[in-house]
Amino acid sequence: MIIGGSASQSLAAEVAKELNDKLCSVETKKFPDGERYFRIKDEIPEDEKVIIIQSTGYPQDENMMELFFILDTLSDMNIDDITVVSPYLGYSRQERRFKEVECISAKAISKLLQSMGVKHLISINLHEESICDLYDIPVDNLSAMPSIAEYIRENHEDKKPIILAPDKGAENFAKQIAEILNTDYDYLEKVRLSPEKVKTKTKSISVENRSVIIVDDIISTGGTIVNAINILKENGAKLVDVVCVHPVLVNDAILKISAAGANKIHGTNTLKSEVAHISVATTIADHLKSLENQ
Ligand code: R5P
């Protein structure tokens, strides 16, 4: 039985279809004062395995609260075989203490989810792999790169674009996609030219007259991508596309990236977004199938 939270209903429907599983009928709404309501409308036998699919991106608190309501309702129904798939797991960016006595938000979330009966957590491209260590239950951090690579293969006009990470931290994403597409990859690095002067450039490949696809896990304000586009254009790139796993895209990020000269912007449907053209349903469904066959 698959339950789709209100942040991920179409993704839940796609996963249920791929698995040939039943999609639970639920009722979700907001009261006039903004509080959330949740109700399960189907019968669920006590021994049923239930998979909740709910991203916990913006509005994070509401989506997280709805996830807690789903978990508590299942607990009242005496259902305890519960897997949560949160393709975008909110509060993951504060996974450690950067200043003294800060709240480690990702740890607080891990305590809440586990205390509410989650037995297995699945997410996609968690901000840091170390988030898995905050849990005592199994946590599977799946990669959206195969789905992104497939999308590029089917839709991009140039069959051999350079896949480019905007920084060293994202290099592995570019590498995974480039290996699937059998094309080049690189990342941007800062080189100090003098004590006062720093230049950002591609590590080893010239982008002159080449199509480039910039890949990152998250695009939030768009600042990282705009900076990368500017450098690529200065260096003579022919066409620059942008792709990410989690299209957070706050405020006018799409506009800023387009104005910088991006040809197209694509994200996956871990979050609802106007650029969520790439589905991670198969990635999730295949993983759930593999767990069943273990
Ligand atoms: C950083 O660790 C992430 O991989 C992204 O590069 C970052 O979140 C992007 O943020 P923004 O779009 O605000 O530059």
List each distinct ligand once.
ribose-5-phosphate
What fraction of residues sit in β-strands?
25-35%
Poorly predicted sequence stretches spanning 5 or more consecutive residues:
none
What level of helicity do the residues show?
Answer: 25-40%
Main sheet: which strands, in order across? 10-9-8-11-12-13-14
The N- and C-terminal alpha carbons lie at a distance of: 19 Å
> How many beta-strand runs?
14
Estimated radius of gyration:
21 Å
H/I helix tally: 8
Main sheet specs = 7 strands, mixed
Strand/helix succession: EHEEEHEHEEHEHEEEHEHEEH
Mean pLDDT: 96
Class by alpha and beta content:
alpha/beta
Shape designation: globular
Q: What does this protein structure show overall?
A:
The protein contains eight helices and 14 strands. It has 294 residues and is an alpha/beta fold. The strands form three sheets. The protein has a seven-stranded mixed beta sheet with strand order 10-9-8-11-12-13-14. A five-stranded parallel beta sheet has the order 1-4-5-6-7, with helices on both faces. A two-stranded antiparallel ribbon has the order 2-3. Helix 1 crosses helix 8. The longest helix has 17 residues. Ribose-5-phosphate (R5P) binds next to strand 11 and helix 6.
